[in-house]
């Protein structure tokens, strides 16, 4: 697939205002991120309930067709310093719809006001809330994008250290799993990413925690042990700086015997799934996620075409 440089420039222009930098304070980044991705009306007739999950509030998104008790616990992205329920509702509603699953979206607390481990602990409390509702760990799937993907993978390591049952699967969208930012895609002289640079991500990492903590498996989850890890679906764009993180994660987990799908979308940028007006691949990417969840996190379920839930419903 040929890379559409015009679309890449468009994506860069749209996202750049929501990226932290020396001239853009955190408060402004947060407002811009919500303005860019937030929406007042949810797609696909998704019902939204506001839930108290302990230290923080959360959205519970319920699709028209929800299969059993299956629930996705979603951690939004935003580099640990921005992002919110508002900014993630649209994408999460689409994922809930395509996966025929309820989705819990916590408003975890952000750095630098609340540095590591606050966000991870907030996600832990949200998971505990689901378990206390009588939902089995085998009916729960973790998911997240960017820093959110970091949090849900770290949460699996954290649960295992506490001997708590882990979820049935993990969806990692453009996972940022190496806060040291020291692999080839970070250090390349000509990075194709239209949004992020190594400096931007390194500065965000230092707002989240101190440099000496980057080797902690609950901070950079690529450092953890992936033996007996749940099935993993990794999705990213070919033109983003985090592609090495996605590939390293897939390789390490696969070498540990984990069932892994790595879905690299050619010509796409970070979080392309969230702005479907820029590319039709956004819808298709979310459908792939939904198909994997509906198929029981089984690689074999991904063979063949990827119908959306609306097509499946009309075929019945």
If you compute it from the alpha carbons, what radius of gyration comes out, rounded to the nearest whole angstrom? 18 Å
Write out the CATH superfamily name. Alpha/Beta hydrolase fold, catalytic domain
In the predicted model, the low-confidence regions spanning at least 5 consecutive residues are: none
Beta-strand portion reads: 5-15%
CATH topology: the name is Rossmann fold
Distance between the termini: 34 Å
What is the approximate shape?
A: globular
Please name the CATH architecture.
3-Layer(aba) Sandwich
Please outline the major beta sheet. Answer: 8 strands, mixed
- What is the percent of helical residues? 25-40%
Overall pLDDT level: 92
With helices defined by DSSP (H or I, 4 residues minimum), what is the helix count? 10
SSE succession: HHEEEHEHEHEHHEHEHH
Structural class: alpha/beta
Assigned CATH class: Alpha Beta
Strand order of the largest sheet: 1-2-4-3-5-6-7-8
Q: Count the E strands.
A: 8
């Amino acid at each position: 697939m040929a890379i559409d440089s015009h679309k890449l420039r468009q994506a860069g222009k749209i996202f750049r205002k929501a990226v932290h930098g020396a001239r853009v304070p955190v408060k402004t980044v947060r407002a811009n991120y919500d303005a860019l991705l937030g929406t007042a009306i949810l797609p696909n007739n998704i019902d939204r309930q506001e839930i108290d999950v302990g230290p923080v509030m959360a959205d519970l998104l319920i699709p028209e067709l929800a299969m059993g008790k299956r629930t996705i616990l979603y951690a939004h992205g935003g580099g640990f310093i921005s992002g919110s329920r508002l900014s993630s509702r649209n994408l999460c509603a689409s994922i809930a719809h395509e996966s025929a699953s309820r989705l819990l979206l916590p408003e975890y607390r952000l750095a630098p006001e609340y540095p590591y481990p606050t966000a991870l602990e907030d996600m832990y409390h949200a998971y505990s809330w689901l378990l206390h509702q009588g939902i089995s760990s085998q009916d729960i799937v973790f998911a997240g994008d960017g820093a959110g993907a970091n949090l849900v993978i770290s949460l699996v390591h954290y649960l295992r250290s506490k001997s708590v049952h882990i979820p049935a699967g993990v969806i990692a969208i453009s996972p940022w799993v190496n806060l040291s930012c020291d692999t080839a895609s970070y250090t390349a002289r000509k990075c194709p990413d239209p949004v992020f640079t190594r400096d931007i991500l390194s500065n965000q990492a230092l707002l989240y925690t101190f440099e000496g903590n980057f080797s902690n498996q609950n901070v950079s989850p690529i450092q953890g042990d992936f033996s007996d890890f749940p099935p993993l679906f990794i999705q990213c764009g070919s033109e983003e700086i985090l592609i090495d993180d996605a590939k390293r994660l897939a390789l390490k987990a696969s070498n540990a015997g984990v069932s892994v799908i790595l879905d690299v979308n050619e010509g796409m940028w970070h979080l392309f799934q969230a702005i479907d007006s820029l590319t039709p691949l956004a819808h298709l990417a979310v459908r792939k996620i939904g198909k994997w969840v509906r198929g029981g996190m089984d690689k074999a379920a991904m063979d063949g075409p990827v119908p959306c839930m609306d097509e499946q419903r009309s075929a019945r």
